[in-house]
Amino acid sequence: MSGRFITFEGIDGAGKSTHVESVAQHLRQRGAELIQTREPGGTPLAESLRGLFLHQDMDGLTEALLVFAARRDHVQRVIAPALAQGRTVLCDRFTDASFAYQGGGRGMDLQVLATLAQWVQQGREPDLTFWFDVEPAVAAARRAQARDADRLEQLDLDFFERVRAGYQRRAESAPGRIVRIDAGDTIEGVAAQIRAELERRGW
Ligand SMILES: Nc1ncnc2c1ncn2[C@@H]1O[C@H](COP(=O)(O)OP(=O)(O)OP(=O)(O)O)[C@@H](O)[C@H]1O
Ligand SMILES: Cc1cn([C@H]2C[C@H](O)[C@@H](COP(=O)(O)O)O2)c(=O)[nH]c1=O
């Protein structure tokens, strides 16, 4: 039996990574064997591409080709085998990020992204995606408190408004899969929203 594929999405600083571990604990307590991974990244090759992606200047098409190259390696070597073994896969970002950042943020043609997604994923989609939705100014303030900005995090609030709108469009196109979390809530409040969704599904 195939395992569950759960992804975490949102603009930088929305709070995704803060909650991946608590979801892992929740599911482990209910008997799931799971792996935690991230994009871009998750394999030695994809982590190398992540380093280039986060720190080298490039245009939107190059960004898209890099993240989909990294994703191909990640899906083939890690995600698909884990799911085939019945494991739950928790992934910090996946293809919705490409539609939001390269599509919404950079203005890339969504049809091109859809074609890349089809080639790379061969129909494999997450079973559940938590979209951490928050005002870009709130996310920027959280990032500023937490760490130095990487290449994308240095972009202005208009960019993150477009990325947020990109996520909104994705959520509207896949309402059963993508669950909006009010990430402007406190950490405890966000954790409660996530737990409620997992329990609603009996997971
Ligand atoms: N609900 C919240 N309220 C206040 N601060 C929060 C909340 N959630 C997370 N934070 C803080 O905001 C910062 C960013 O959180 P986190 O790293 O989880 O975001 P992220 O969405 O994973 O970011 P990125 O995708 O850029 O890595 C951290 O310092 C974290 O402690
Ligand atoms: C998968 C993916 C990611 N990105 C961007 C989004 C973030 O700015 C970085 C990843 O950093 P994080 O701290 O791990 O969140 O990469 C993107 O633009 N497109 C993608 O497909």
From TrEMBL:
<dbReference type="GO" id="GO:0006233">
    <property type="term" value="P:dTDP biosynthetic process"/>
</dbReference>
<keyword id="KW-0808">Transferase</keyword>
<protein>
    <recommendedName>
        <fullName>Thymidylate kinase</fullName>
        <ecNumber>2.7.4.9</ecNumber>
    </recommendedName>
</protein>
<dbReference type="InterPro" id="IPR027417">
    <property type="entry name" value="P-loop_NTPase"/>
</dbReference>
<comment type="similarity">
    <text>Belongs to the thymidylate kinase family.</text>
</comment>
<dbReference type="GO" id="GO:0005829">
    <property type="term" value="C:cytosol"/>
</dbReference>
<dbReference type="InterPro" id="IPR018094">
    <property type="entry name" value="Thymidylate_kinase"/>
</dbReference>
<dbReference type="GO" id="GO:0006227">
    <property type="term" value="P:dUDP biosynthetic process"/>
</dbReference>
<dbReference type="GO" id="GO:0004798">
    <property type="term" value="F:dTMP kinase activity"/>
</dbReference>
<dbReference type="InterPro" id="IPR039430">
    <property type="entry name" value="Thymidylate_kin-like_dom"/>
</dbReference>
<comment type="function">
    <text>Phosphorylation of dTMP to form dTDP in both de novo and salvage pathways of dTTP synthesis.</text>
</comment>
<keyword id="KW-0067">ATP-binding</keyword>
<dbReference type="Pfam" id="PF02223">
    <property type="entry name" value="Thymidylate_kin"/>
</dbReference>
<dbReference type="GO" id="GO:0005524">
    <property type="term" value="F:ATP binding"/>
</dbReference>
<keyword id="KW-0418">Kinase</keyword>
<feature type="domain" description="Thymidylate kinase-like">
    <location>
        <begin position="8"/>
        <end position="194"/>
    </location>
</feature>
<keyword id="KW-0547">Nucleotide-binding</keyword>
<feature type="binding site">
    <location>
        <begin position="10"/>
        <end position="17"/>
    </location>
    <ligand>
        <name>ATP</name>
    </ligand>
</feature>
<dbReference type="GO" id="GO:0006235">
    <property type="term" value="P:dTTP biosynthetic process"/>
</dbReference>
<keyword id="KW-0545">Nucleotide biosynthesis</keyword>
